Predict the 3D structure of the following.
Amino acid sequence: MRKRIYFNAFHMNCVVHQSPGLWVRPEDRMTQYTDLNTWVELARLLERGRFDALFLADVIGPYDVYRGNAEAALRQAAQMPVNDPMLLIPAMAQATEHLGFAFTSSTLQYHPFIFARLISTLDHLTKGRIAWNIVTSYLDSAARSLGQSELLPHDERYDVAEEYVEVCYKLWEGSWRDDAVVKDRARGIYADPARVRAIHHEGRYFRSDGYHLAEPSPQRTPVLFQAGASPRGREFAARHAECVFVSGLNPAKVGELIRQTRLQAGRLGRDPADLLFFLYAKVITADSEAAVQRKYRDYLESVRDEGALALLSGWAGIDFSKYADDELLQFVETNAVRTLTQSFKRPASAHRWTLGELVKLVGLSGGGPLLMGTPEQLADTFENWIAAGVDGFNLAYMVTPGSFADFVEGVAPVLQRRGLMQTEYQDGTLREKLMGAGRARLRPPHPAVQHRWT
């Protein structure tokens, strides 16, 4: 029996997410990112194509590492301007029945007490189709915007995240008992006060003393995504994540990272099968190989190196304006995204990247694999990645909605005929759709469960 592959669309509430320059193409609609219809129509397209979820990225600071300012990012609309992803979700949920919605929120953005209520509200409004991508931020500009001089050191940001999720777990799982809401019209009692309690938390980074303001939602704790690839990030994922966002060009290396994270989860007492791994990728497809190559060349001509350099410098925490195009890149320890700079730390026999090569890679593919081919060829490629250990894909786009429409109309039917992609949705919450019937809530020994009031 073939393994079902999970597919999320990877997007962002902005003009340019991962394809700097392609917004100028007439078929791209992202200059209309402020129009709610753009997002509602995308959600309907994805549900028609039986995607599992729409995964919304976010940043809370400008890309200002390149040349020491945000000018390049602004000229190329490289993730700036960017609007809040959370506010899109209720409208898209109203227009769909099954599609899940994952959104990114940094542990810098909200006090966990406020964030917990936001999540519960969305989980109610979507009938349990919400997921949170837990991030710790990588742009110093985000910290400065919030009144801090700079980001905390990389690993300490994960210490903050550990405490942040603990406060959220206490609120989601431990403030209201399952039977607290009685809705007794005869006695005029909505909730039994004896079954609702304040949570008390006093830690190194957060304090909270109060009731969770929202009544229990379908999932309580949302589906948890996480994308750390550093040793500290993998440790966090092994303890908390249900869905892990991975990136890499080599299936064997990505598969080894997945294997190590599953082993870590097992050592913590978790079932390694409770973690699903989603690979970042972009797809170019058409009816013939010649048409695929034409699309590739057309897209490549539209890429703007300045936008790619703004994104690349922000991700790596390195001002690449100081490097020549033909200069071989070396590993440098930074306080930003470790996944990227680790790619420069290779054995002597491995490929060494020049800046020019990396700019072209980032400009078109966003730094992950660019999967190209006819629908049948792509189905083979997806199977090869699944064999390496991934469970699904976060598919970014060249142009919106065209890249997703090409997948829905061309690739999805081939995958469905092979039994590799769902043809109908599982009933229930997003967690049940991903993990199976009866799995609306987290199960032991996930750390959230220890705070559950039963």
Summary: The domain at 6-289+367-449 is CATH 3.20.20.30 (TIM Barrel). Confidence is low (pLDDT under 50) at residues 343-349.
